[in-house]
Each structure stands twice: as C-alpha cells, then as structure tokens.
Amino acid sequence: MFMIGEQKGETVQNISIQRATFKTQASKIIQTKRAKSSEALTPDQEREITDTIEQIADAKGLSGPLKRKFFNKELGKLKKIYKARDWRDIHRDYFPEIKEHYRRHLWGVRGEQSEGQERKGFLRTIHAKRGELGWNEDELHEKLLRRFGKKRLSQYTNNELRLVINWLNEQLEQW
Description:
Blueprint: H1 6-34, H2 43-59, H3 64-81, H4 95-110, H5 115-133, H6 137-148, H7 158-174
Helix pairs in contact: 2-3, 2-4, 5-7
C-alpha cells in the first residue's frame, strides 16, 4: 500500500536503502567466505600455476570451451588433492610440489625431457661410445682428464657432456 505524495517517495527511498544495505551485507559475507589465509598461495604463485596450466592447454591444442574445461578440471584437482575450499586457499608450502608437477606435465605434453632425464641419456650415449671404441672406464677417465681437464663424468654439466659426445664421435670417425 503506497501513500500518495511525500509518503510514496519516502517508501520508495526506504526500499532503495534496504536494498543497498542488503547488497553491502551480502558483499561482506562473500568477502569473508573468500578471505584468504595469510599462508595461502601468493598472487604470484597463483599466476605461475595458471600460466603453466594455460601453456599445457595450448601445447595440447585446446581452445575455447575445451580449454576452459581443462583449466577448471586441473584447478578442481588441486582443490581436491590439497583439501582446500578453493584452489587459491592451498597452503603456500605446497607450491614447489605443484609447480614441479605442472612443469613435468608440460614437458610430457611438449615431448621434452627434464635435465635429469637428458643427463641420463647423455651418460648412456657416452658409455655406449666408450664401448664402441673398446675403452674401459679407466681409459675413458684418463682421456677425459687429458682432453677436458675433468676425470669423472659427474663433474661435467649437460652442455659439457654434449661436447664429450661430439669428441667421442670424432674419435670414432678416426678409429
């Protein structure tokens, strides 16, 4: 029941005030529910996780709805695995573990190898070439020391191991 004149304006104004008050209270409730723990992932960590997931989706050739579905699925997995209300509420101590998981996932999608896997491959190649040359391990170590100044393969970086492989290939050509 509305009154005519000033009463009507006041009633409409009261309704507007009540709606504004309700929206403010609802907003505070939502913000309270979403308030992050001080130990949750930092914004930079969140961004790094989402960027990596996006790179995985791109490497898989996903776009549009499929990309969004993949993205939501991955974030849902994080939420479930770490028993968090929201994936952003995951404790920041888990970030290195999450980061490494998605890095490995990205390598797998791209068909790349981690440094450790690459290193193992280099060492297998070196030992196979050593066998082809008829050298035992001690002979290889002596020749490496004379040629590169380091005796043990464990002392070499991956780039240096590439140089050793190239050198062994030269030795095989001369042999």
